[in-house]
Amino acid sequence: xxxxxxxxxxxxxxxxxxxxxxxxxxxxxxxxxxxxxxxxxxxxxxxxxxxxxxxxxxxxxxxxxxxxxxxxxxxxxxxxxxxxxxxxxxxxxxxxxxxxxxxxxxxxxxxxxxxxxxxxxxxxxxxxxxxxxxxxxxxxxxxxxxxxxxxxxxxxxxxxxxxxxxxxxxxxxxxxxxxxxxxxxxxxxxxxxxxxxxxxxxxxxxxxxxxxxxxxxxxxxxxxxxxxxxxxxxxxxxxxxxxxxxxxxxxxxxxxxxxxxxxxxxxxxxxxxxxxxxxxxxxxxxxxxxxxxxxxxxxxxxxxxxxxxxxxxxxxxxxxxxxxxxxxxxxxxxxxxxxxxxxxxxxxxxxxxxxxxxxxxxxxxxxxxxxxxxxxxxxxxxxxxx
Length: 386
Ligand code: ADP
What we know:
By secondary structure, the chain is of the alpha+beta class. It folds into three domains: 11-92, Rossmann fold (3-Layer(aba) Sandwich); 121-182, ATP-grasp fold, A domain (Dna Ligase, domain 1, 2-Layer Sandwich), CATH 3.30.1490.20; 188-375, D-amino Acid Aminotransferase, Chain A, domain 1 (2-Layer Sandwich), CATH 3.30.470. It is built from twelve helices and 20 strands. Strands 10, 11, 12, 13, 14, 15, 16, 17 and 18 form a nine-stranded antiparallel β-sheet that branches. A five-stranded parallel β-sheet has the order 3-2-1-4-5. Strands 6-9-7-8 form a four-stranded antiparallel β-sheet, sandwiched between helices. Strand 1, helix 1 and strand 2 form a beta-alpha-beta unit. The longest helix is centred in the middle third of the chain and has 17 residues, at 228-244. The radius of gyration is 21 Å and the shape is globular. The termini are far apart. Adenosine-5'-diphosphate binds next to strand 7, strand 9 and strand 15.
């Protein structure tokens, strides 16, 4: 592979959702037109990619032959297949040493705890016996998780309050490999995003704080409003984990903030929801740095351009409002950076996001929330949607 001539890069992205769409746009800026492996014609990245191929992610071998470097926007790819491809010389970036823990939550917990990183107590959940063993060590509520990533729109995390509820989840998901873990009471949730080149050169994005409601990420604030020690610890953790698993590209380290400090929740070896504010908030977006890192090109600066940045996600509602119908009004909100992904509106589906920069979180949040409310057809009075 000749990495000296960007015009010759044959870059493949597996997946064609909004992460792939924004990564594709970042590559175009550099003169690189990625080839996509999409599942459906209406996938939002396939709509904008002239070179989209269609097939199940398991049909990766044929796709990989057309690419010098292959990267991923989701975790629903067979690891065994990736290992075979890697052994046969395909440049899988990040490689399987990174992807294995990112794609397999049980493996991830085992690896991180073995290396001394703090994670919730956990065990494989093969059936009722494992549940009884675990519930003797940790009291309810407990968290049951699918070991592999859930399909889009489906949940892979169940917080169960008692044994009956846990048994119900086990029987309803008997075909899904599951694990169980200790429930950590949360003070907050943070995401540390790092971009890393093959040789280990790294850049860290501003630490982000994420706010979820009904299992969906609603808002992302940067910088996170945590003390300097927690912020430094989060940064150190992200860099140490990126080195440990030899991450290449963007690695997002999701952290639970508890009264006893930080606990690692999850790793995502790709651009992450919490990093979308880097598009306007940082000199180099997470998408561009992902491309740069996987092609072993110099990384760009990642500092925050303003004192604060806030992203509010645009999530589909029951009434089927299409945010594009309200685009003009949303664009009239001064300072709002509106992103719509071109999806058909459906309840609970992430249709876009709005980012605003400001001198403080409240100021940026006010702008982003106002534009989001307008997009979804709500009236907005200072501080609240109506
Ligand atoms: P997903 O793959 O859906 O992102 P996560 O493992 O990140 O799954 O879990 C989703 C959410 O569930 C987290 O953002 C957090 O709010 C909550 N959660 C997950 N694990 C725990 C835990 N061990 N203790 C407390 N809350 C948890």
